[in-house]
Amino acid sequence: MTRRRIGVLVMSYGTPESMDQIEAYYTHIRHGHAPTPEQLAELTARYAAIVGGVFPLRENTNRQVSELERLLNENAGDTEFVCKQGLKHAFPFVADGVEALHREGVEEAVGIVLAPHYSRMSIGGYIREAREKADQLGLPIRFVESYHTHPLFIRALTERVEAKLNDFAKAGYAREEVRVLFTAHSLPASILETGDPYPDQLLETSRLVAGQTGVTGWSFVWQSAGRTAVPWLGPDILEVLPKLAEEGVRAVLTCPVGFVSDHLEVLYDLDIECVQAAERLGLMFARTESLNTDPLYLGTLKDKIEEVVQADVNKSR
Ligand code: FEC
Fold it and tell me: Which of 123, 262, 264 to probe ligand 1 with, by most ligand atoms within 8 A of CB?
C-alpha cells in the first residue's frame, strides 16, 4: 500500500524573535514603510511592558503546530501529515513554509490559519500568498477558510466564559450583572463596502457562545485598531467601557473570540490598556483565557483539515 504524505501549512501572524527585530517586523506590517522613531519607540514599549524581551506568540505558535502534527498523525493509517509554519510578518514567511513542504516531497497540501474568522484582508491575504508560491512550485494546495462555528471551538470558548463567570460569582457579581464583551481585531471600515464576511462571522461566534452560556447581557466590540488615518471598524472597547460605567454596569468580562493565542493584542491591549481603563472607571474587569494548545481548539483544526482531505478523496472516487 502506498503511503500518502500530506503537507499542512499552518499560517499565523508572526512576531519578532528579539527586541532588535521589532523595526523590521513593523516595517513588514507597514508594507515596507519603516516606522518613524516615535512609532517604533511606542511599539517597543508595548512589547517591553508585556514580557520584557520575550515574544509569547512565537512559542505559542511553535507549540500549536507541533501538537497539531502529533494529533493529525494519531490513527492516520497510511497517511502521514507533515506540518510547516508560514508566518505573515516574520520568518519563516508563508512562502518559506510552502517551500519547506515542497522540499519535504509532499504531493499535496492543505493550508489553515491560526485565526478563526475570514476576511479578504486577513485570511484572504494568507491564502493569496500561499497559493501564489504553491502554484510556482506546482504543489496542489487547498485551504480551510474559517472555523468560527465549529462545535469544539465554540465549546472551548464557552468553557472559558463559564470559568470567568464563576469567578465573578465568587466576587459577588451574579451572571446577569456581568456584561460580556466579545472582541476581535478591528479592520479598516472599507471592508464593509465589499460585503466582507468578517463582521458577520464574529457575530455568529459571539451569538453561539452567548447562547451556550445563557448570557443575555453581551455585545460584540472591536479592539486593537491600527494607528492609521483611515476609519477602522468600531466601536472600540476603550470607547465602550466608559459608556458601560455610565450606564451603571460594574463588572465586565471580555472574550477575545478573534484571537487564539496569548500575544501583544491580548496581553497589552486587553490585560494592560483595558485593565487600567477599567480601574479608572471602577469596573471589575476580566478576560477569558486564550485557547493556545487547548485540545478542543487543536481538535477543531484537525477536523477542518481532515474535512478538506476527505472532500478531495470523495471527489477522486
Ligand atoms: O504578539 C505579537 O507580536 C503580534 C500580535 C498581533 C496579532 C495581530 C493580529 C491581527 N492583525 C490584524 C490586522 C492588522 C492590520 C494592521 C495591523 C497592525 C499591527 C501592528 C502590530 C500588530 N498588528 Fe495586527 N496583529 C498583531 C500585531 N494588524 C504590532 C502595528 C502597530 C499597530 O498598529 O499596533 C495595520 C497594518 C497597516 O498599517 O496597514 C490591518 C488582524 C489580525 C487577526 C488575524 C490574524 O492573526 O491574522 C486582522 C496576533
Answer: 264
